[in-house]
Design a protein that fits this description.
- With about 280 residues, the protein is of the alpha+beta class.
- Helices cover about 15% and strands about 45% of the residues.
- It has 4 helices and 18 strands.
- The protein has an 18-stranded mixed beta sheet that branches.
- A hairpin with a 2-residue loop joins β16 and β17.
- It is globular.
Length: about 280
């Protein structure tokens, strides 16, 4: 039997196809959902709302907002780039924050957030843990090079010549669980497009499948592309949903300072009735 949850509202949101169930925790208690079983039930496609993850938003002081994010397997993640973009959009839509700029607090740090040119944008925490050469993970035929960057969460980036040749569901889990990566990692495959931009695909830790987009994956990929001399201060990365994410980069001593901009869209609002 499901647990009756009459009247509990939620927002279904998408960031370039990376989709989320989002709760406004300022509107009432949602503590009953912050457990592994509830997260899995909400995220289940076919029997739940269906999502890559679940987000809880609450006020953090007079003008700031706090975001808590859980992967669809129920594990809490320090950061999700696309969830941050969606949270930025929803916080402004709900009047929790001003579109001109506010601070979005996450488990990975406090991010400056805003709406710019009609799209949400967040400045991520400095990224220092970068390895331009991660060939110790074992480069396979068809892989040009491998790199590693921790952009809030750990990422392996694999450059290949043709994105459709990426073995996301085979090679992805292998690298995601590589024994030298203590916390595992998301795995991003990237290839250059004919127009000079890039396209990428991600096997996402915690979802344990390919997702249509990954915001922190876009950031890590842009950092590695810049480290490899293949891109500059701004990189456009096309997601599997055929929508772009734009990563802007600055350097400050040993740190990369990234900003991420892209879609953060409310698909629909709903009311929960029961969870199985």
């Amino acid at each position: 039997m499901g647990t009756r949850l009459d009247g509990q509202r939620f927002y279904k949101m998408t960031g370039s196809g990376n989709d989320f169930v989002v709760f406004d925790a300022t509107a009432g208690s949602v503590s009953q959902f912050e457990n592994e079983d509830a997260i899995k039930s909400l995220s289940a496609r076919g029997t739940g709302v269906g999502a890559d993850g679940v987000v809880f938003l609450e006020k953090a002081g007079e003008s700031d907002v706090r975001m808590r994010y859980y992967n669809s397997d129920g594990s809490e993640a320090a950061l999700c780039g696309n969830a941050s973009l969606c949270s930025t959009r929803l916080a402004v839509e709900l009047g929790l924050a001003q579109g001109g700029g506010f601070v979005l607090h996450t488990a990975a740090g406090s991010l400056k957030a805003r709406i710019r040119d009609g799209l949400p944008e967040v400045d991520l925490e400095p990224v220092r843990d970068v390895r331009a050469d991660a060939s110790d993970l074992g480069r396979r035929p068809g892989e040009v090079r491998l790199g590693y960057a921790c952009a809030g969460v750990p990422h392996v980036v694999v450059e290949i010549a043709e994105i459709e040749a990426a073995d996301v569901t085979g090679r992805g889990p292998e690298l995601r669980n590589h024994p030298t990566l203590a916390e595992g990692a998301n795995v991003n495959f990237v290839a250059r497009r004919s127009d000079g931009s890039f396209t990428y695909r991600t096997y996402e830790r915690g979802v344990e499948a390919e997702t249509l987009a990954c915001g922190t994956g876009a950031v890590a990929t842009a950092i590695l592309l810049s480290s490899w001399g293949e891109s500059g201060k701004e990189t456009t990365l096309w997601t599997r949903s055929a929508l772009p994410l734009t990563v802007s980069l600055r350097r400050e001593k040993d740190a990369w300072l990234p900003s991420l901009r892209g879609e953060g869209r409310i698909v629909f609002e709903g009311t929960l009735k029961a969870l199985d």
